Amino acid sequence: MDAGNSRIKWRVGPQGDVHTLDWAQAEEWATRLMDTLAAEGGVLKRVVVAAVAPPARCALIKSQLAAALPDVSVQWLRSRARCCGVRLGYPDPGQFGVDRFCALVAARARHPDQAVLVINAGTAVTMDYMNASGDHAGGMIMPSMYAMEVGLTALAPNLGPFFADDRASGTGGVKKKASKTAKPDNSGEVGYLAVDTHSALVLGARWMMAAAVNQMAAALMEDASTPAFRILIGGGGGDDLQSMLGMPAMHVPDLVLEGIVLAARQQR
Ligand SMILES: Nc1ncnc2c1ncn2[C@@H]1O[C@H](COP(=O)(O)OP(=O)(O)O)[C@@H](O)[C@H]1O
Ligand SMILES: CC(C)(COP(=O)(O)O)[C@@H](O)C(=O)NCCC(=O)O
């Protein structure tokens, strides 16, 4: 289970279907898990959680699990200095988000002899570079486009929400509205200038995101200390982010869940 800041994601076994739930519906989580078990079969022995969500939300998960599945063991993963061929760059691994850690573990397993740039597009967008030997050189954390909206509209409330209604309608965040704005003539060209508030806000957030990820990736490519790398993109906003990246990247939506399975085997 991947307990992020926006959503809970889980699957039963390494190949099960991926299920997601917004925190607003978190009270239903154990019921949904029981439904998953009933539909997919098998006997649940252990739940492994990678959580970056705040303590109150983790406590909610914990109490639901204790009530619904009292005999099942629960393992809360932590970022480790070394795991599954990954050597973490942070001197204090406890600071490093366990979701980023699991994504690195998954990337290493997918490409054991290659350098990778791992981008996680969740509530925050993180970018982490790991060389071909599994040494994580470090990374960065920036707000997702949705977080930009929340931050800007908190400070300038008259602007109103610009992505939130898309999220609520389950269209995957920004794509629908952004494409209306970014491709006004359906030519596929990204627009530069908007002439209404909503479009200006969407365009601004998209340009900030696109400029940041492209410039960061380009800077790494030019840096002799970070030799040629593959780019892997995970997280709920990964599809959209991939469309903004001006270089080849593989979209692996469930990179964190993949890494959880591998890290759990080693941290048991
Ligand atoms: N139904 C949805 N609810 C929330 N976010 C969504 C949804 N669909 C796509 N997204 C996008 O995915 C991001 C959240 O991705 P996710 O990987 O679940 O984040 P986290 O790990 O932080 O919980 C949001 O910022 C948004 O851009
Ligand atoms: C950066 C994050 C907030 C990203 O979380 P997410 O967007 O997946 O909810 C999370 O990885 C985290 O809390 N990290 C701790 C700080 C760090 O990694 O340096």
From TrEMBL:
GO cellular component: cytoplasm
Pathway(s) the chain acts in: Cofactor biosynthesis; coenzyme A biosynthesis; CoA from (R)-pantothenate: step 1/5
Any GO MF annotation of the entry: pantothenate kinase activity
Requisite cofactors: K(+); NH4(+)
Catalytic activity: (R)-pantothenate + ATP = (R)-4'-phosphopantothenate + ADP + H(+)
Top-level lineage group: Bacteria
Similarity comment: Belongs to the type III pantothenate kinase family.
Quaternary structure annotation from Swiss-Prot or TrEMBL: Homodimer.
UniProt protein name: Type III pantothenate kinase
Biological source species: Halothiobacillus diazotrophicus
Encoding gene (name): coaX
